[in-house]
Automatic annotation (TrEMBL):
GO MF term set: carbohydrate derivative binding; DNA binding; DNA-binding transcription factor activity
Alphabetical list of InterPro entries matching this protein: Homeodomain-like_sf, HTH_RpiR, RpiR-like, RpiR-like_SIS, SIS_dom, SIS_dom_sf, WH-like_DNA-bd_sf
Name of this protein: DNA-binding transcriptional regulator, MurR/RpiR family, contains HTH and SIS domains
Gene3D superfamilies cross-referenced by the UniProt entry: Glucose-6-phosphate isomerase like protein, domain 1, Winged helix-like DNA-binding domain superfamily/Winged helix DNA-binding domain
GO aspect biological process, one term: carbohydrate derivative metabolic process
Xref: PROSITE patterns: HTH_RPIR (PS51071), SIS (PS51464)
Residue ranges occupied by any HTH rpiR-type domain in the UniProt entry: 1-72
SIS domain location: 113-246
Annotated keywords: DNA-binding, Transcription, Transcription regulation
CDD domains: SIS_RpiR
Length: 270
């Protein structure tokens, strides 16, 4: 499928090439470490493979072959598309959104996200308008992990009062899609002035240039003139939470919740 130039590849590099040709979809979604573990070779061997192919690193290889994820399902669904069935076409687009969101994730950024959440005295989530549902999901997940977290969805004077009380020891998370609204601009003005660590979940790839201090996670929601799906942003939240779970006392928190439910079941039946 990838047409790798196999003539000068080492035996281990041939294993990697075969790995990708046999399971293109799954392989493109995995990290270098996962590929190395699957093939029982070193991470360095996997890294060198992509450089041998002429790519700067694994990330640039994935970006260059992003269409591979969609090509296989596309062939399987081609007959349905030709009969004007909208379902398969929509499903294919959702796969593309998920894949582009996944390939945009850098392990170093995910690790930094975990660090900023764990070291924060309070995590403040700002979600306005259409992003309110995403904010509530993230708030729910973080609270389950016993992270001190607050959710803010108000604008105007109520937002001003919230911004007034933000502290440099806090971590701020915001959602921004399509464009920066005035509430988000005000938020970023305050966090920059107070040197507050700030994380943005967005589909705007120019935000990192405008605000270099931000930790930006990009997600795909479709083209500007298309229906904007929330499947990519939702997936991004779940991926970040999964990374956080590995570094927290999630199991202990869950056990404490079970014990409290038992204690209070007479007052708060499920």
């Amino acid at each position: 499928m990838f047409n790798f130039p196999t003539k000068n590849l080492t035996p281990n590099q041939m294993k990697i090439a075969d790995y990708f040709n046999r399971q293109a979809q799954q392989a493109l979604l995995k990290t270098e470490e996962e590929i190395a573990n699957d093939l029982k070779i070193s991470n360095a061997t996997v890294s060198r493979f992509f450089k041998v192919l002429g790519y700067r690193n694994y990330k640039t290889f994935k970006q260059a072959h992003i269409h591979k994820l969609s090509s296989s399902p596309q062939n399987k669904l081609q007959q349905a598309k030709e009969t004007s069935s909208i379902g398969p076409m929509r499903f294919q687009k959702l796969l593309d959104y998920l894949y582009k969101t996944e390939t945009g994730l850098a392990n170093t950024y995910v690790s930094r996200f975990v660090h900023l959440i764990k070291q924060a005295s309070t995590v403040h989530i700002f979600s306005f308008g259409v992003t309110k549902g995403l904010g509530e999901l993230l708030f729910y997940r973080l609270r389950r992990l016993a992270i001190p977290v607050e959710l803010h969805t108000e604008g105007g004077s109520e937002l001003m009062e919230t911004l007034l009380h933000l502290q440099p020891t806090d971590t701020v998370i915001f959602f921004s899609f399509s464009r920066l609204i005035n509430e988000t601009k005000a938020l970023l003005h305050v966090t920059e002035k107070k040197s507050i660590k700030t994380i943005g979940l967005t589909d705007q790839d120019n935000l990192a240039d405008q605000y270099p201090a931000l930790l930006i996670f990009l997600t795909d929601r479709g083209k500007p003139n298309e229906f904007h799906s929330m499947i990519g942003p939702t997936y991004l939240i779940e991926r970040l939470i999964e990374a956080l779970i590995k570094e927290t006392t999630a199991e202990t928190t869950a056990e404490a919740l079970v014990a409290l439910r038992s204690e209070l079941k007479a007052f708060l039946p499920r």
